User: What shape does this take?
Amino acid sequence: MARIGVDVGGTNTDLVLECAKGVFYHKIPTTLKNQSIGVVEGVQGICRKAGIDPAEVETIVHGTTTATNITIEHNGAECGMITTEGFRDILHIGRHKRPYNFSLHFDVPWQSQPLVKRRNRIPVAERILPPTGEIATPLDERAVRDACAVFRKRGINSVVIGFMFAFLNDAHEVRAREIVLEEMPDAYVTLSSEVAKVMREYERFSTAAMNSYVGPKTAFYLRDLDSRLREAGVKSKLRIMQSNGGVSTVESCARRPIRILMSGPAGGVIGGASEGAMAGEANIITVDIGGTSADISTIPAGAVKIMNPRDTYVSGHPVLTPMIDLVTIGAGGGSVAYIDEAGAFHVGPRSAGSEPGPACYGRGGTEPTVTDAQIVLGRLDPDMALGGDLKLDASLSHKAIEEKIAVPLGMTVKEAALGIIRIINNNMALAIRSNSVARGIDPREFSIMPFGGAGPLHGVALAEAMSCKDVIVPVAPGITAAVGLLKTDLQYEHTEAVIVELLKAGEAEFVRINAAVASLRDRVQAELDNDGIPRDQQTITVIAECRYHGQGFELRAVMPEGPVVRQNVHVITDSFHDQHQQDYGYSYRKAEVELITLRAIGSAAVRRIEIPAIPRTDGSGIDRALMFVRPTTFDDGRTLETPRYDRTRLLAGDRVPGPALLHQHNATTLVPPGYVAETLDYGNTRIRLIGA
Assistant: This one.
């Protein structure tokens, strides 16, 4: 049966299809007003390309930026919140942190762009006490109904329910939801104890608020897409990529869209790790450069990292949901170059997107972009974009850079174009350092893996800036994130707060821990059962999130096999010490370790997409792939006659010396002078210095 991966970006929608006839790739412009239109068109298009009926498609795995875009554009739902009396301003106070300690002009997102306005946060009487979850003050049900009346009057239909210590006892939140749905049957309701059943009221409330803020629009998009696919004759199962690198169902993600805030970038990291394994490289730095943004992640020893909870912020708001460790910056082919009021030269983060797009698109865009600079420098051939499917106008690129950058700064158009490329590369190099060098990782031991439609044009420059050992270009760079969608498992996570000092734990504490583990396993198993996953194909792992006594945040630790007892509790503490040593460079082996949260991760393995190996070189030489020769300007300012090769006609073992451009439908790879590109076993490419 056929399977499709669909990754929707800010500029293009990328698709990969695996079926009995082979693996097929497709790329079309994103339909920004309604992404589902482009997804359906792309699915139909790639099926035509493969010569199969859409009804043959068994599964579609989708990576989406819908929820992310809502947070960036600040156009989520108007939310109401019901919270504990006396704690109405938790979302405003936050942690009293200054985003930039020494700036007098910093912005505080949770105050300037609140997820729930203060007038819509309504306190009610209720109180639950720690550490047992005992009810001290019953829930004032009349006050909850009065709050619903206020919400109805204000036209609010998305409701957050967040009570103090609900992570210890969720009875009041559950009852409040029942009342809200009695009063407002169509309301979108989020309980803090369901989306983040952990301590820290600000982070828990913020997570719940974010879920309700992005929820209605995200849920509509996912259900609308599912409906449109069925109307188009596609009856396949629709699965959604989550921020943690696993996939889930439409209904699950519609209820908890915070799970898919980093859905799009996650597919790229998974795809990058898999491409690294295909190339025999365990240490990879992935740089996914699309039209709007660049997503950067470091993968040491082939292991995709999950971000520490203290760092999981989205648009300035803390969101306690597992996310793949990556950095996103506004750097892509559509990043706009401009001169500010003080005369400084900038590139990004603002993007031209796909509508109107770069100036060369001829859709009305007049601002110069990175893509326009690549065209002026001869690194992109206007008649070869998307294999010739997208015709570009080089004269519009030249005009935009000349008028907006070159003339105001008193430089030539070529110098201005080189400046645009150097600035965007430097911006990306700084982001790579923050995800590698700043965390004790030596880039000299890593390969840069550039992908996305614009990635391979920047790969060598980034490798030089970071002193990486070489560049690995994936088989289909512009589609790598979509390929990653077909290389991941179904996955669910649930948490339970269990606060225990492990060195002092007695029999009662071990009973609590083991009861929580059993409850978590049951909850995860129920979700996998609902997806029709046979029990023998389910894998459930429980991990402990621990800290030193009084420490700010937790680290993940391994749980022992079987029930936790005095004889094996050291497995947790030893694992925590080891992780602390790895992350921070020190540990206190004799200090008290607190267990704070238990997390159960349930997964079910799915069939991975198999990229076929290509034939070995036959000795006929690389001229079989030669297309034509055109002048190209490189980073050192030299303009050289540069051959273009059809990358799909290169065989394993072929070596292409620079200067050269490798063309394929979804991306162009730049090989500068002094470098050589070697085609590897699966059609991927290694670029390194000649003689290295």
User: Anything to note?
Assistant: The chain has a mean pLDDT of 91.
